[in-house]
Amino acid sequence: MNLNCLSSSLFLFLLLSVFSSFISDSVFIKSETLVNGRNLLQKKKACPVKFEFKNYTIITSRCKGPKYPPKECCATFKDFACPYSRYLNDLSNDCATIMFSYINLYGKYPPGLFANQCQEGKGGLKCPGQI
Asked: Residue 33: which of 25, 23, 41 has the closest Cα?
């Protein structure tokens, strides 16, 4: 009976392996075009800033939970992000998405923390040297 159970498990494993590789392959196929060939979304350019190599301790050392004080969090966010504002404001690249993913990875901040706390008007945050 053990041999029968083992062979059934092996068969199930092989079947799932074949099936899952088929699903995996289809998941990675880019589905950015409709049947008629039109793009659903414009492809974003790669970010020229290498955010994966930046030092995030400027933010994580001063913006701490559980209260996440707005004054400290916003000031430190500006200290980090303002030098890259030209790239972060360019919606044709993926810089903002990448930067926020690393900030959240290292700081484990609640979703939308900086967007909800750090507002200085319609134009967004004012960086030194900007009009």
From this structure: 41
